[in-house]
Amino acid sequence: METVLVIGAARSGIAVSKLLLKNGYHVVLTDSNAIKEKTELESMGIEVFDGGHPDSLKEKKYAFIVKNPGIPYRVPFVHYFVEQNAKIYTEIEVAYRYAKNFNYAAVTGTDGKTTVTTLLYEMLNRQKKSLVAGNIGTPLCELALEYTDEDYNVALELSNFQLLGIETFRPHVSTVTNLAPDHLDYMDSLEAYYESKMRIYENTNADDYFIRNVDDENVVKYAQNIPCHVIDFSLKRKDVDLYKDDKYAYYKDTQLFTLSDLKIVGEFNCGNAMMASCMAYLMGVSLFNIQEEIREFSGVEHRIEYVDTIDNVRFYNDSKATNTHAACAGLSAFEKNVILLCGGKDKHISFDDLKQYDGVVKKCISFGQTKDKFKDIFTSQMSVETMKDAFEKAVLLAKPGDIVLLCPACSSFDQFKNYEIRGEIFKQMVHEYAAKRNEE
After folding, report:
1. How far apart, in whole angstroms, are the C-alpha atoms of residue 206 and residue 279?
2. Is the dihedral of CA 421, 426, 431, 435 positive or negative?
3. What are phi and psi for residue 67, nearest 5 degrees?
4. What are the tens digits of pLDDT across the range 9-20?
5. SS (H, E, C) the chain
6. What is the spatial distance between Cα 232 and Cα 252, in angstroms, rounded to a whole number?
7. What is the pTM of this model?
8. For residue range 311-361, what is the model confidence (pLDDT) as tens digits?
9. Which of 110, 93, 91 is CA-nearest to residue 196?
10. Of 76, 18, 27, whose CA–CA distance to 52 is shortest?
11. CA-CA distances (angstroms) from residue 26 to 34, 59, 78, 272?
């Protein structure tokens, strides 16, 4: 019996361990933290080491290693196996090998991938029972364990961390939404980050499709030698395969949907909807189901999410804007009078691109680790310690017609566990403020 080492016992690590066990491997699972499922996993026959990675694990022989995508390759325990030229996969590769009844539409990119994946899933699911997994929250291995009885279409969101650990994974339809600087605290270089995204199509063939965003110069530069059908997409040009005019979005001669039916705001969200619709169409979804979903889809939580209007001041939660590029997209959805709440963990990314929205931002209130890095970006700026401080300042400053926008341009990890919790706390602040105003 071959042995596999799984590094990291988060939800995906536990799922991949169970899937490997089911398929005849002896599984060794290790985590630097305590594993609360340890007793259950050991009773199944999985060898568990928690509270650290013992050196004795380096002495065993493994068929391959599965690493949690969030653990950098430079971490000493992982780097030891890198130096040994060990095969190191992520759970996406393992699930792909064993879930032979899944047909994939895969989405990566710096921004927009969650919106594209979610809308794509809703379209697929209208046509027939479908699944959604990956970076969006559910490990693919969990679905591979549960859904074994029939064929499924799977909308799959992939981070570059997950793509670094594939070898044979092949989607039928894929796209890289866009490319902008991100994760420079994890990757060795910006070029390495961009190149890792392009792994999404490396195993495709002439039966498959890749949607290439020709509006993005980085995508055009790095998306080369593509082995499948290339569908060029643009919001600006009409000499491409996937395009729009003033009224409709088209794939070649096929009218995908009516632009006025879109509920999600911003030109970039129109592009997200076009990508999702084209992918769904290529996966066999009818135009009727695509258009019905376009009319109903109200967006993704934490992505320019409308929260409430209080005293004629609108509040939006864009906590998912964890880098400069995403923050630019969020700000582009508004014309003026934005009170911007931003800041968070320093990812060593320039904020200079935000300067173009100085006329849109009435006041920038920045918080967290990067609070002082916005002083040179916006004409009217103030620094505070926490998001709560920023919110309290914002409601004091806001006048009727203003927009209070949480659009951090940074990851959350200096003060919050993740961007979801940051967004939930912001929404809670809005709701509490609304209740207080109603009492007055």
Report:
1. 16
2. positive
3. -115, 135
4. 999 999 999 999
5. CCEEEEECCCHHHHHHHHHHHHCCCEEEEECCCCCCCHHHHHHHCCEEECCCCCHHHHHCCCCEEEECCCCCCCCHHHHHHHHCCCCEECHHHHHHHHCCCEEEEEEECCCCHHHHHHHHHHHHHHHCCCEEEECCCCCHHHHHHHCCCCCEEEEEECCHHHHCCCCCCCCCEEEECCCCCCCCCCCCCHHHHHHHHHHHHCCCCCCCEEEEECCCHHHHHHCCCCCCEEEEECCCCCCCCEEECCCEEEECCEEEEEHHHCCCCCHHHHHHHHHHHHHHHHCCCCHHHHHHHHHHCCCCCCCCEEEEEECCEEEEECCCCCCHHHHHHHHCCCCCCEEEEECCECCCCCCHHHHHHCCCEEEEEECCCCHHHHCCCCCCEEECCCHHHHHHHHHHHCCCCCEEEECCCCECCCCCCCHHHHHHHHHHHHHHHHHHHHHC
6. 10
7. 0.81
8. 999 999 999 999 998 899 899 989 899 999 999 998 888 999 999 999 999
9. 110
10. 76
11. 21, 16, 20, 42
Q: Which tokens is 47 given?
A: 């060898």
Rounded to whole angstroms, the Cα distance separating 387 from 5 reads: 40
| In contact, 32 and 52? CB cutoff 8 Å | yes
The number of CA neighbours under 13 Å toward the Cβ of 98 is 24
Q: Which amino acid is at 275?
A: M
For 180-202, the pLDDT digits (tens) are 876 555 556 788 888 889 999 99
Tokens of 5: 């080492």
Q: Up-side HSE of residue 210: CA atoms within 13 Å toward CB? A: 27
**Neighbouring residues of 146: CB distance < 8 A, sequence distance ≥ 6:** none
Instruction: Please answer whether residues 154 and 146 qualify as being in contact, where contact means their C-beta atoms are separated by less than 8 angstroms.
Output: no
What is d(CA 263, CA 142) in angstroms, rounded to the nearest whole number?
32
